[in-house]
Specification:
mainly beta, 3-stranded antiparallel β-sheet, two-stranded antiparallel ribbon, 5 strands
């Protein structure tokens, strides 16, 4: 089972968004409603590498393992 992050879709502007961790099989479709509350939700896509800076440039985090730019190994 994989744990996915979901967020509520507030019906009104300015309402707080709530986040949930929900375990699902990778074969399951993304949920559109919270299984217990019935609130509308959407899956949050996380990932990427680096830190986004103003202007859209990215900066890779420094490696703390001492490996070179080609990685370890």
């Amino acid at each position: 089972m994989t744990t996915y992050i979901y967020e509520t879709i507030p019906p009104n502007d300015g309402e707080a968004v709530k986040y949930y961790e929900i375990k699902q099989s990778k074969a399951d479709r993304a949920l559109t409603r919270h299984p217990e509350t019935g609130d509308p939700i959407r899956r949050v896509i996380l990932g990427g590498y680096g830190v986004l800076k103003s202007g859209g440039e990215t900066e890779a985090p420094s490696s703390s393992c001492g490996c070179g730019p080609e990685g370890c190994g």
